[in-house]
C-alpha cells in the first residue's frame, strides 16, 4: 500500500502551516538542488509569517543565490542563512555545524539529502575518504553528532535522512570505507552508505530517545543526484539522456519533497515522547512503526520498511564495528 500523495499534500498545505511553531530552526545539508531544494521551498511556504530560521549548507553561495531570493520572497518573516562549505569534507561540515551551534540555542529539523553517486571508481578527498561515501554517510553522522545538544533542546526534534532506508544489505566488513582495490563501486558504495547510516542512526536513537530519526528511500526521483559523480562522456550521457528520460519514469522532486517534509514534521514519524508537539496525523493514516533499532525506516510509498530479517544479523555482527570505525575516523580529524 502507499500513502496517497494527495493526503500528504493536503496535510502539508493545511494542517502543517496551522500547527508549526513560531521561530522554528531548520538545517539543510544538500538543499541547492533536487529533493532538498524542493523541501526547503515547501518548508518556507509552510512557515510563512512564523519567523523561522533556515540554514542551508552547500558548496556554492553563488549557485544558491536564486534559491535564497525565492525563499525570502515566499516567506518575508524567514531568516535564511547560507553557509558555504564543501559537504564532501567532514571537517567542513563540522565547521558549519559548530557555527550554527554558536548562533542557535535549538535545532528543530535537521534535513539531509546531500549525496551523489560516483560512476568512476574510487577517488579520495584530502581527508583520505571517498567523496560520495562521505556525503552520504560520514558528513551526515558528523552533522548529527555536533547538533545533538541543540536537537535535544527542541520540543519536537527531527533528523530526516533521504537515502535508502529499508534497503540495507550485507557490508564489506573488513573494509568499511571501501578503500581496498576492487571494493568500491556504484552498488557497493550505495549499500555501504545506507547500511552504515541506519546502524549509526540506531545508535543515536538509543542514546537520544527524544529525537525522531527518519531514514527514507525516495524512490527514483528526477534529480541531479546521478550527474555530479561523473565527468566526460558518462557524465554527458547521464545528464542529457538518462536524466531527461528519467522525468517520464521518476517521481517529481516536488512530490518526493512533499513526502520528505511530511516525515520531518508529522506525528506519524515522531517518537512517542514528543508526538504531542508534532503535526497531527491525517485521519486516514495510522502511526508508522519504527525498526527494532528505533529508527523510522521509510519506503518511497511513505510506509515503514520491513528489513528486519536482514538488519538483525548485520546489527548483531557489525553495529559496534561501524561505531568503532566512525569513532576512529573522527578521532583522527578532531582528536576526540
UniProtKB/TrEMBL annotation:
Highest taxon of the lineage: Eukaryota
InterPro entries attached to this UniProt entry: NAD(P)-bd_dom_sf, SDR_fam, Sec_Metab_Biosynth_Oxidored
Keyword Nucleotide-binding found: no
Molecular function via GO: oxidoreductase activity
Keyword Oxidoreductase: yes
Keyword field: Oxidoreductase
Alphabetized SUPFAM superfamilies for the sequence: NAD(P)-binding Rossmann-fold domains
Name of the protein in question: Dehydrogenase/reductase sdr family member 12
Provenance organism: Fusarium flagelliforme
Amino acid at each position: 500500500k502507499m500513502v496517497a500523495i494527495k493526503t500528504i499534500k493536503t496535510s502539508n498545505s493545511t494542517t502543517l502551516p496551522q500547527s508549526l511553531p513560531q521561530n522554528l530552526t531548520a538545517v539543510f545539508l544538500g538543499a541547492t538542488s533536487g529533493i532538498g531544494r524542493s523541501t526547503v521551498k515547501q518548508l518556507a511556504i509552510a512557515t510563512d509569517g512564523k519567523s523561522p530560521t533556515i540554514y542551508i549548507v552547500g558548496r556554492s553561495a553563488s549557485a544558491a543565490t536564486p534559491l535564497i531570493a525565492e525563499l525570502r520572497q515566499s516567506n518575508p518573516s524567514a531568516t535564511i542563512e547560507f553557509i558555504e562549505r564543501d559537504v564532501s569534507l567532514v571537517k567542513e561540515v563540522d565547521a558549519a555545524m559548530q557555527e550554527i551551534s554558536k548562533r542557535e540555542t535549538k535545532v528543530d529539523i535537521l534535513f539531509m539529502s546531500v549525496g551523489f553517486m560516483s560512476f568512476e571508481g574510487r577517488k579520495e578527498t584530502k581527508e583520505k575518504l571517498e567523496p560520495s561515501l562521505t556525503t552520504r554517510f560520514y558528513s551526515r553522522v558528523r552533522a548529527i553528532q555536533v547538533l545533538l545538544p541543540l536537537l535535544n533542546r527542541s520540543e519536537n526534534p527531527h533528523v530526516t535522512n533521504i537515502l535508502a532506508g529499508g534497503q540495507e544489505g550485507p557490508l564489506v566488513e573488513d573494509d568499511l570505507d571501501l578503500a581496498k582495490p576492487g571494493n568500491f563501486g556504484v552498488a557497493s558504495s550505495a549499500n555501504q552508505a545506507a547500511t552504515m547510516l541506519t546502524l549509526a542512526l540506531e545508535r543515536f536513537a538509543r542514546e537520544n530517545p527524544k529525537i525522531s530519526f527518519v531514514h527514507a528511500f525516495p524512490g527514483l526521483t528526477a534529480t541531479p543526484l546521478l550527474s555530479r559523480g561523473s565527468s566526460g562522456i558518462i557524465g554527458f550521457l547521464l545528464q542529457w539522456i538518462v536524466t531527461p528520460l528519467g522525468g517520464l519514469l521518476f517521481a517529481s522532486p516536488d512530490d518526493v519533497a512533499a513526502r520528505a517534509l511530511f516525515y520531518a514534521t508529522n506525528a506519524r514519524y515522531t517518537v512517542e515522547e514528543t508526538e504531542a508537539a508534532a503535526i497531527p496525523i491525517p485521519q486516514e493514516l495510522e502511526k508508522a512503526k519504527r525498526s527494532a533499532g528505533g529508527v523510522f525506516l521509510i519506503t518511497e510509498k511513505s510506509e515503514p520498511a520491513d528489513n528486519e530479517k536482514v538488519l538483525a544479523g548485520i546489527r548483531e555482527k557489525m553495529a559496534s564495528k561501524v561505531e568503532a570505525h566512525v569513532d576512529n575516523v573522527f578521532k583522527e580529524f578532531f582528536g576526540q
